Structures are given as C-alpha cells and as structure tokens.
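Checked the freezer inventory, then went back to the computational side. Two predictions to log before the end of the day. The first one is the construct we discussed on Monday; recording sequence and tokens without edits.
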Amino acid sequence: MTRQVLGHLTEHSGAQDTLEGIVEWWLLEQRIIQQTAEVQEVLADLTAQNLLVETRAADGRVHYRANRRKAKAIRELLREDK
C-alpha cells in the first residue's frame, strides 16, 4: 500500500486528496492498471491453449469467447479449480 500511495504521488507530482479520494480514485486506478495487465496475460494464455477464440471487430478491438470445440476441456479445468 505504501508503494501504491507513493507511486501515485511520484507520477502525479501536484496530486493531493482526502482519504476517501485516495481510496476511491488513486488506488482504484492503480488496481485497474495492474489487473488489466494480469487479465491480458490470462487471455493470451487461454488463447494460446485454444480455449478462447479471439475475433477482431471493425473498430479494431479484440473480442474473446470460449472455444465451443474445447467445452469439455474448459469444464474439466473449472472442476479442477474448485
């Protein structure tokens, strides 16, 4: 938590806020950035395993969906995680 607060203040030298503002905005922003990177890695891994199919839309964004041909493998994987 110390690193997150100091990191934000270092990146935004003029930043100041209340306790509530820090929790709601600063830490949330950093968590979103961190989780976005983690989700990106997971999506790349699942796509490489052919468990997900990616489709590029007209706007250039990639959409992901479960590979129906791998439904059995996906169900087995989900059972293992319980």
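The second is the one RB wanted added to the comparison set:
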Amino acid sequence: MEWRDDALILGARRHGETSVILEVMTRGHGRHLGLVRGGRSRRLRPILQPGNLVAAQWRARLEDHLGALTVEPLVARAAYFLDRAAALHGVVSLCALLRLLPERDPHEELFEMADAIAALFGDIRAAEGAATMLARFELALLGALGFGLSPKSGRAVSRAAGAPWRDKLLLYPDFLQHESIVAEQADLIAAFRLTGYFLTRDVLKPRGVALPAARELYVGALLPVA
C-alpha cells in the first residue's frame, strides 16, 4: 500500500531513540499517522512542527498497518508562530480540533480551510482574517462530525423574537453564512461562543474531554474582551 499527498503537520510523539510517530492531516486521505524514521534528527525536527505543510509519502504492507511516512517540506511556517502568542495558540488549537476527526476519513474542504488558516497565522498582518476563518472552520468541523448548525433550524429565532431572552441566547453572526461580510470583534466573540458551546456539548463532553486550552488562550490573546 502506498500514497502521496500534501499534509499539514499536527504533531509528533517520540518512538524509540531516533524516530517519531507523526500525525498529519492530508488533503485526500484524512487524518493519518505514520512512523518517521530519524524524525528526531536535527534535519527533520524543524520540518515536523505543527502548522508546516509537507509533501508526504506513506507506505505499509497492509492498509490497516501504521506504516512509514517520509516527508519533504513545502511551506515552513512554524518559526513565524513562536514569538506571537495568538498565532502559536491558534495553530495548537487548530491541530487539536483536527484530531477530533476520525482517522483516515477524508475531508478535503477541512484540509483546505486548515491550511489556509495556518498560512494566515504565519502572516503578522492577517490576525483578523485568521480569526474569521478559524470561526468558520469550527462551524464546518461541527458539520463534518454530524452536528451542523443552521439559523434556519427549528431552534433558531430572529433577533426581534429573541430580544426578551437576549442574555440567554447564543448569537449566530451573519459572517458565518456570508463570506462577503466582514466580521467585527463582537461578531468574532459571538461566533467562538457559539461554536465552543456546541463543540463542548455535542463532541467533547461525550468523549470526556474539554475544549483545548490553547483555544481559550487564543481567544484571550486575540480578543481580550471575550
């Protein structure tokens, strides 16, 4: 068995003295694990950092085996995250959220979104754009996991009808539906509250886990009034 694909690095854990088990999100093969021999070497360690984009090749004797991964760098971004708290927390949160997807389940749209977000995190001028895309990504992730949200659902109400219960309702900002709308800070705060609520209730609590700490740090660093 063998495939080649573009892959976003999610993380790596030590395996033996010199190797690592690498976790990636690929365009056509979903979230995938593989053994990288020599992954702890001076040459490979900078490449195997979360948020970097690589060309990956996976080989295994049988499809259900862990298999071996080899990677070549395509876009190195990790160095741009290290001295910027919001970007660093954002990338860690993004990678943690991608781990909620079933292994080897293809989600090309989510891969494209995640890669674009990581690219924005690597650009100091694109902080607001990264936050907007991350909120949309979380909504898309809920949909991919079977918990899609829609303002047209039976539990959604108009702004006027919901006014008496404003303090108890979650807002569904317009920018989540329409890419042409620019998200204001208040809209971003509302969006992260919305997606965070449903991620916690429907995805994380049943698994006995909480939202990634990096997500809260990201929101706090980027949106201090949240």
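For RB: Strands lie at 2-15, 19-26, 30-36, 53-59, 68-75. Helices lie at 78-81, 85-98, 108-121, 127-144, 159-162, 185-204, 213-222. Let me know if you want it refolded.
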